[in-house]
């Protein structure tokens, strides 16, 4: 081999010697980032799973809470309905019982009225009949009083619209002006409340 051929071959040998190792040896360095990405993906997947589980548990807790509140509301509504029905029944019983008591008080008065009617058909004694009717009126007034019903006394008093209703006005002089000069219909109180207003004539 000539000297020139040796010189040409030598650089090629040196270049071959300076070439890096095979790509197969560099592969692990390129695959390392992919392994890190896989690990990060697994970590994110676990984190996402924990968040989903936490949200599911919270949702179940809220659903249970709502169910408990709904049951409580239903129980309260049922209790109120029972209370309303019971109260209504008690009021009806009270009204019926109160009406019964009043009627029982009135029956003796009715008996006296019937006896007075029978007496008028058999007797012409006006004084006896007058006394009998007066007694019946007193008995009836006493029966009402026992039930809390009292007469409103308005005659010769200042007219008061809280207890009386003026049905007419007549000139009666300065002394009677603004006062009740006649009672057309008697008024009654039931306890502290007006049961029926008195109908009166007022002086002007």
H and E string: HHHEEEEEE
Can you tell me the overall shape? Answer: elongated
The number of helical runs is 3
Beta-sheet strand percentage?
A: 5-15%
Largest sheet: 3 strands, antiparallel
Computed CA radius of gyration, to the nearest angstrom: 56 Å
Helix/sheet category: alpha+beta
Mean pLDDT: 81
Count the beta strands: 6
- What's the N-to-C terminus distance? 164 Å
- Low-confidence segments: 6-11, 13-20, 22-28
How are strands sequenced across the largest beta sheet?
1-4-5
Helix content: 55-70%
Provide an overview of this structure:
The protein is α+β, with helices and mostly antiparallel strands and 204 residues long. The chain is 67% helix and 14% strand. The strands form two sheets. It has a three-stranded antiparallel beta sheet with strand order 1-4-5. It has a three-stranded mixed beta sheet with strand order 2-6-3, with no helix packed on it. Strand 4 and strand 5 form a beta hairpin. Helix 2 (23-122) runs antiparallel to helix 3. The longest helix has 100 residues, at 23-122. It is elongated and about 115 Å long. It starts with a helix and ends with a strand. The model is unreliable at 6-11, 13-20 and 22-28 (pLDDT under 50).
Put the structure in a nutshell.
With 204 residues, this protein is of the alpha+beta class.
Task: List strands and helices in order, with pairings.
Layout: H1 3-18, H2 23-122, H3 126-146, E1 149-151, E2 164-170, E3 180-185, E4 188-190, E5 193-196, E6 198-203
Parallel strand pairs: 2-6
Antiparallel strand pairs: 1-4, 3-6, 4-5
């Amino acid at each position: 081999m000539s000297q020139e051929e040796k010189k040409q071959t030598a650089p090629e040998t040196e270049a071959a010697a300076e070439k890096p190792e095979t790509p197969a040896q560099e592969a692990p360095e390129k695959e390392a980032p992919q392994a890190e990405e896989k690990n990060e993906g697994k970590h994110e997947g676990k984190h996402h799973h924990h968040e989903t589980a936490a949200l599911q548990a919270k949702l179940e807790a809220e659903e249970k809470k709502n169910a408990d509140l709904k049951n409580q509301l239903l129980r309260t509504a049922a209790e109120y309905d029972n209370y309303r029905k019971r109260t209504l029944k008690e009021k009806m019983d009270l009204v019926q019982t109160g009406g019964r008591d009043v009627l029982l008080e009135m029956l003796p008065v009715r008996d006296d009225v019937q006896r007075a009617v029978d007496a008028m058909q058999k007797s012409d004694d006006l004084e006896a009949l007058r006394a009998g009717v007066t007694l019946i009126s007193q008995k009836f007034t006493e029966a009402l009083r026992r039930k809390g019903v009292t007469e409103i006394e308005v005659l010769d008093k200042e007219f008061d619209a809280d207890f009386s209703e003026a049905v007419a006005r007549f000139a009666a002089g300065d002394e009677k002006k603004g006062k009740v000069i006649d009672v057309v219909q008697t008024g009654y109180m039931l306890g502290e409340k007006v049961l029926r207003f008195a109908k009166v004539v007022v002086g002007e």
